[in-house]
Amino acid sequence: SSILWLFRMGRIAVFSTFIVVQCLVLISCASGLKTHLADQRKHHEKNGKCSKGSSSSVQLSRRGFLGFGVIGLVVPSLVWPSTAGAVYVKEEALQGNIFLKERNEKANLLKASLRQQRRALESMEFYVSEYDCKAVCGALRAPPFSTIRKDSAALLPLLGEGDRARARAAYEGFLAALEKFDRLSAAGINNTRGSAAARAELYAGYFASLAALKGYVASLPEEIARE
Which positions, given as ranges, span the membrane (predicted)? Predict the structure, then answer.
């Protein structure tokens, strides 16, 4: 997303600034040391040979500039890991929040499809009451009900571990009831009248499937929890 992209660009900017600061410190130290030594050389040439004290002064000056350079390199190096670590932790948290939001949005769409499929199954009661098994088989294989397995296969992996286990158990119970109902309706296609026992069995299979589907939909969480 755009927010995550901006956050990554910010991290790159921080790292680039760190490199630039270290380069500037090195350049400044080298330039300052060169200028200082040149000034001292001119001073000594003007006043004659270097004395022991002036030689020590040159050495101290070199050490001072080198010490400043080391500090300029070490301090940013110590600061950078903590800064980079904080930026990385914030990015990781942001990425987790964005991913969780996307999972919830996708899950909500799939749950809306399941509710449509539940209503589609509820509307099949008329066909069951008329023992119109051909119409029942057709409705089970037509949208929106025909995509229920595909939607569930996409939805279940989005859930948290505990929610996923409960929903999967409810889904498997629903599938078992649905397959039995489908077999009963397929068996009655060539027998349009049906016996009283066959009608009762189809009714029982239908209501078992509907109850199992309602239980499956009810087992789904309102929001996906962070794992």
Answer: 12-33, 65-89
Evaluate the CA torsion angle 161, 162, 163, 169 in order and state its sign. positive
- Cα torsion 173, 127, 144, 148 to 10°: value is 10
User: CA-to-CA distance for 45 and 54, rounded, in angstroms?
Assistant: 12
- The continuous run of DSSP H or E covering 194 comes out as none
What distance in Å separates the CA atoms of residue 66 and residue 84, rounded to the nearest whole number? Answer: 27
Residues 126-183 pLDDT 10s: 999 999 999 999 999 999 999 999 999 999 999 988 899 999 999 999 999 999 999 9
3-state SS, residue 176: helix
As a whole number, mean pLDDT of residues 186-193 equals 87
Domains and CATH numbers, the chain: 102-222 (1.20.120.290)
